[in-house]
Amino acid sequence: MLQAIMVEPGKIEYKDIPIPEVQDHEVKIKIKSIGVCGSDIHVNHGKHPYTSYPVVQGHEVSAEVIEIGSEVDHLKVGDKVTVQPQDVCGECYPCRNNNYNACEKLKVFGFQTTGMASEYFVVDAKKVLPLPKDMTWDQGALIEPLAVAVHAVKRVNDVKGKKVLVLGGGPIGNLVAQSAKALGAEKVLISELSNYRLKVAKECGVETIDANKESVEDAVDKHFGPDKADYIFECVGINPTMDQAINVARKGSTIVVVGVFADLGNINMGFIQDHELTLKGSAMYQEEDYLASIQLVENNLINLDSLITNHVHFKSFKDAYDLIDEQQDKVMKVMIEME
């Protein structure tokens, strides 16, 4: 089978390797669609803090089951599936306390262990989740980033009836906003600089703040009133938006950090202390977030298709990164097609 390997930042080579044998607890899947993530882009630029080279990427996928091990009973050949791309130890404190997404020895497919950028992949069946038959391959691959968003929203108390501010209208920010709305938030706003991403947010039914035309502070006062936002989600991963989140937060409110910071953060800890702000990180997801994401899409509460801007063939994988570098904020999700 053909496998795409990033041998160094910005350089992908293809290798023809044998397809692994399927063990009793495993399944063999044929990869159909791969989404390119912001974290993948950090790897391409050599700026991901937890990835070394060479590395096989690919963690947002949809696939078809083509072989199952003798102990597998929840899947069958021909099933449309996605994969929860985490290897966890099962023994550390987070794992023992149902927080395996924060495993002390966590390895993520495509970053610390082999990803799914190959024609076929053999994986523990426990990580494989069936998808509805009418879900497209691209939609199936986007369940992973949607699970990131759902997990982030669930990091706060129930959002029903709450006012939510999302900083950053990229794919994750957009999905966080859509998830908050779908899970019952009273009002959700995305702040974004890119006209294109503002347009996509509106297509997805989310109100926006054009940060080119008005300050976030003024917009929060106008849309949310003097009580401001109940929850703020930082979905960019840069110091300026982290500062924004802290500066516009109501005293005693909660900020969830969803964005992946490629550079060291530098934030006003004195302000956090003085305003009794709660700062929470959000890392990956658990199976329940995948299941909730699939259900939200089935119930037509999430618009995934509007996020897809480009398709690139698997044998031209590097073109996806070049496209993102060239187009920048005019790109949302680039999907890698296998056929």
Describe the protein's topology:
Layout: E1 2-8, E2 11-16, E3 26-35, H1 38-44, E4 60-68, E5 80-83, E6 86-87, H2 93-96, E7 107-108, E8 120-124, E9 128-130, H3 137-141, H4 143-153, E10 163-167, H5 171-182, E11 187-192, H6 195-203, E12 207-210, H7 216-224, E13 231-234, H8 239-248, E14 254-257, H9 269-274, E15 278-281, H10 287-298, E16 308-313, H11 317-327, E17 333-337
Parallel strand pairs: 10-11, 10-13, 11-12, 13-14, 14-15, 16-17
Antiparallel strand pairs: 1-2, 3-4, 3-8, 3-17, 4-5, 5-9, 6-7
Helix pairs in contact: 4-5, 4-10
Give a structural overview.
The chain has 339 residues and is an alpha/beta fold. The protein folds into two domains: 2-142 and 304-337, Medium-chain alcohol dehydrogenases, catalytic domain (Quinone Oxidoreductase, Chain A, domain 1, Alpha-Beta Complex), CATH 3.90.180; 148-281, NAD(P)-binding Rossmann-like Domain (Rossmann fold), CATH 3.40.50.720. Helices cover 28% and strands 25% of the residues. It has eleven helices and 17 strands. The strands form four sheets. Strands 3, 4, 5, 8, 9, 16 and 17 form a seven-stranded mixed β-sheet that branches. Strands 12-11-10-13-14-15 form a six-stranded parallel β-sheet, with helices on both faces. Strands 1-2 form a two-stranded antiparallel sheet. Helix 4 (143-153) packs across helix 10. The radius of gyration is 20 Å and the shape is globular. 47% of the residues are buried.
